[in-house]
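Working notes for the structural subgroup meeting. M.R. asked for a predicted model of this chain before we commit to crystallization trials. I am recording the input and output together here so anyone reviewing the notebook later can reproduce the run.

Input as submitted:
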Amino acid sequence: MATNLGDRSDKELEQGLAEGEFGDKKALVAEEVLRRRREARADELKRKYKYLGGILAALTLAFMKLRRLWRK
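Returned structure, recorded in token form:
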């Protein structure tokens, strides 16, 4: 098993935290590593799919405008 916490997989870190495998300092480092990895994945998803938000907003506004026109 990898000795450096940054080299371990997310699953290994989560399992080590759940089993109390790490001391206080290493547990804090493991939690921070997991947090940063999750944040990086979330940022990548936002970057990858940000155009979908614009398309959805445009469709919503168009639908709202059409509803107002139909009511008149």
